[in-house]
Amino acid sequence: MNYGPLVFLAAFAALAASWFGFVLTPHLQIGHLQQTNTVPSGVSYPVARSGLAQQGLQVYRANGCAYCHSQQVAQTGTLFDLVLTNPGTNQASTVAAIQSINPRLSQPEVLEIIGKVPVHLLTMVSKSTAEAAAKTVNATGANAVPWIVPIGPDIQRGWGSRRTVAEDFLFDYPVLPGSQRIGPDLSNVGVRQPDPGWHLRHLYAPASVVPGSTMPPYPFLFEKKKVGRVPSPSALPLSGIATVEDGYEVIPKPEALALAEYLVSLQAYAPLFNAPLSVALGKPTSPTETNSISISGGDKAPSDISMP
Amino acid sequence: MSSKSAFQTATGDSLPADISCRWPLFVLLSGAVFWLLAGSILTLIGTIKFHAPDFLAEPAWLTYGRVRPAGLNAMIYGFCLPSALGLTLWLLARLGRTTLAGAIPVVFGGLLWHLGVGAGVVGVLSGDATGFEHLEFPSYAVAMIAASYLVLGVAGVLTFRQRAERGLFVTQWFLLAAIFWFPWIYSTATILTSVYPVRGMAQAVVGWWFSANLILVWFGLVGLGIVFYLLPRLLDRELESHYLAMFVFWMLILFGTWTGIPKTAPVPAWIPMMSKVTTVLAGLALLGAALILHRTLGADYRLLSTDPSLMFAGFAVASFVIAGFMGIAEVLSGASSMLHLSWYATARSWLQLYGFFAMALFAGIYYVWPQLTGRPFPLPRLVRLHFWLAASGVMLAVIPLAVGGIVQDGNHANPEMAFVDVAKGTLTFLRISSIGDVLTLAGHFLLALNVLLAIGAFCWDRVRIALRTATIELQEQGVNS
Hints:
The complex is a heterodimer of chains A (308) and B (481). Chain A contains ten helices and seven strands. Helix content of chain A is 33%, strand content 13%. In chain A, α3 (91-101) crosses α4 (107-114), α3 packs antiparallel against α5 (127-138) and α8 crosses α10. The radius of gyration of chain A is 26 Å and the shape is flat. In chain A, a hairpin with a 6-residue loop joins β1 (36-37) and β2 (44-45). Chain B is mainly alpha-helical and 481 residues long. Chain B has a domain at 15-167: Four Helix Bundle (Hemerythrin (Met), subunit A) (Up-down Bundle). Chain B has 15 helices and no strands. Chain B has helices at residues 6-9, 16-51, 64-95, 103-125, 139-161, 170-195, 201-235, 242-254, 270-281, 283-296, 308-332, 343-373, 380-412, 419-424, 427-480. Classes of the chains: A alpha+beta (308), B mainly alpha (481). At the A-B interface, α1 and α6 of A face α3, α6, α7, α8 and α12 of B.
C-alpha cells in the first residue's frame, strides 16, 4: 500500500496548523489592538511618536541598536503596597489600627504620616496581607487601598515599572523588541535620561558619559568641523575623554537629533488594564524588605504615571 | 567491513545524477563557500568591537549593528541555504536514480541567488536592514532570492517526480517537506513584516515564528536528512531505523513549528506559553536523533573517525541534540531568569546554526563534491584538519558564551550590581569565544582552498582532454591526407 499521499497530506496539515496558530491568530489578536486607556486615569494610550522620533526609530533600525538593546521589560509577579488615602475622623483608632498592622511605627510617627496622605503604610506585601490590613484600617472609618506593584529583576533594576506589553509598540514600524542585553533595556530610557543632549553626547562618545562603557561610539552620526566666526549653538559640549582639537566643534547630524528624540520618546510605563500598576512612590525596594514603611514622597499627590 | 570513503569511491566514474548536478552544484557550493568566508570575517569584525569598542567605529557600514546581521545573514542565506539546496537537489537526483531536472536553469538560479545575497549584504551594511532578525535583507535582495528559489524549488520537485526508483528513503521525506516549507515561511514572513506589515507586535511574532521554523525546523529537516543519508552510506549498513527517522520527522513538524516565542515577549501570554510546551515536546526529536546515531553506529563511536564526512556528521547530530536541550533548559528556567536575552541564547543558536547545520553541510559537501568531479579533493589532509578546527572552534565559541550567559543572568538578577559591571563580567567569556571564531574562520580557508583547487583541477582536466582529442583528430587528418 502506498502511504505517500497520506504522509504528504498529514505533513501539510501539521505545517499549516503552525501557520494558523502562530501567524494568523496572533495577527487577529494583536493586529486588531486599538488605542486603549490607562487605568485609572483613562488617558489614551499609546499616542503615536512625533515625526522626528519616528525618523529616529529608522536610525535605530538602520544601525542595529537592537542587537545590543532589548525593549522588553519582564515582570515575574506582583506585590502590593497599602496606601492610606484618607485618615478618617476617628484619629485614635486609626492610629491604633495602623500600629497593629505595622508595629514598627511609633505613635508620633503614625501621627506625623497620617497628616500627609496619601502615604504608604506597607510596601511589597502579598495581596492577602494588603487586603487584610486594609480591612483593619478601614474598619476605623479611614480609607486605605492596596496598590499593585509589579516585581522582577528588570523592574528592580529600574528598567521599568511594569512589564512591556503589545500596546507599547502599537504604532511602531518596525517593532524592535531586541533579543540581547549587551546594553541595558531601553523600554523606558526616556524616563531615565529625558535630556536629548545627554543622548547626543553619549552616542558620540559613550565612555565619556558613562565611565567604563563598552558601547561602541557613533561618530558617523556627527560632523566635525572648523568653528566658524561664531561657535555653532548646536555643537556638543564635550568634556573628559571626548574632546576635539582646538578650533573644531562637533555638530550632530539630523540623524543623531532624530535618534535622540526617539530615545527620549521611549517611555512605556502607563498603567494599563492588562499590565496594572499603581503609583510607585520612590524607587521600588527589593521584595525582601517587606513591611518597611516608606514615607518618602508621601507629600506628592499620587499620579498613576510616576516613575522611579 | 569496507568503509566507503568519499575518497575511495570517488576516484572513478560519476553517475548520471552526478554529471547532471556538476555545474549547478559548482555554482551553488562555490558561491556558498565565498559567503562562508565573507560571513565569518564580518562576524569577526563585530566580535573585535567587544575587545575594543573604538575599532572601526568611524565607517557607518562597519558599525556593530550592521556587521553583525550582515555576517549572520551571509552565513544563513549565503552559505547555509544554497549549500543545503544544492545538496538537496543532488540527493533527490541520486536517490531517485535520475538526473537533475532543469540543470541549466538551476545554474542561473544559483547565480541569481548569490547575487541576491550580495545585494542583501551590501544593503544591510548600508543601513537598509529591515530590523527583523534573520530577515534583515531589504526587499530588493529578497526579490532576487525568492525568484531564484522558485527555480531551485521547482527543479527539486521535478527531479523528485521524474525519479526512476519508486521506493522512498527517509531523506526524501525530510527534503521534500523542506522544499515546501521554506517558501511558505519565507513568503509569509517577508509579506507580513515588509510588504504589508501587520500591526505592532504581530510583526515580531511573525519574525520569531520564522526564525524558529528556519533554524530549528528547516535546518533540522535538511541537516538530518543529509546525515541520515550519509550514515548508512559511509558505514555500509542500514539506518537504525527508518521508523525512528520518521518519528523525528513528525516531532519536528508537529512541535518544532510552534516554537521560538521568547517568554518575555510583550504579546498575549498564551503565545509564549504554547511555545514553551512545544519546545519541550520537540525534545522528542532530539532523543530520536541521538538514538539513531547511537544505534546505527552500534554504540561504536570510533567508527566515526573512519571518514571525515562521518566526523562532521557525528558532530552535527551531537550539536543538534545539545542545542535542543539548551533550548529546553532556557524555556524551563525560572521566571526571573532572562537566559533568552543573554549570551546563553547566542551560544545556543550558534550551536544549532553552526555546530549542527553548517557541520552537516560540510559533511555533505566533502562527500558529494568528489563524486561530482570524479576525483578526490586535491588536499585530502586538509579535510580532517578542517574538521578539527571547526569542532574546536565551535566548542571554544559556544561553551564560554553559554557559561558567560549564565553568569550574566545571575548578575542581572542582583539589582545591587551596576549594569556596566554586569556587562564587563561577560567580557572574558566573549574574548575566549573570539578565539573560537578565529579557528572556524581558519577552517573556512581550508575548505575554500580545496574547493578552489578542485574546480581548477576539474577545468584543467577538461582542457587537457579537449586538447588531446583535438591533437588526435589533427594527427588522424594528417595521416589521411
